[in-house]
Fold this protein.
Amino acid sequence: MRKSYVTIKQVVLKNNCPECYNNSGLQLTFKQEFLETSLHKTLTQKISNSLYCNTCETEIFPVQWTDDIERVYEYQLKAFTPKKSYLKLKPLALILIVVAIVLIAALVTFLISSYK
């Protein structure tokens, strides 16, 4: 199973960076989890976020957030709408389902004909 994250929304913040105190480099990113196996692809409702400063090139963890950053984060989280989750079957899964249906139909037909 391969797990990755799809970027849904990126927002440039005007707050001061807790590391370099620059107010033009903060970027808040919301990502949604995407799972892929040999049978299906799934977009889940699991949301991940990160705050990155493009000026000092560091990730700002929630422990370092100021009250202003937390307020902007809460606002952006309320305004954020994730994509709907889905399950998409790959051709291999569809083939396995069809084969299973054919085998069950053959078994039922065999049992009915042997009962008479």
Observations:
- DSSP finds two helices and five strands in the chain.
- The beta strands are 2-13, 26-36, 40-53, 58-60, 86-89.
- Residues 2-89 form one domain.
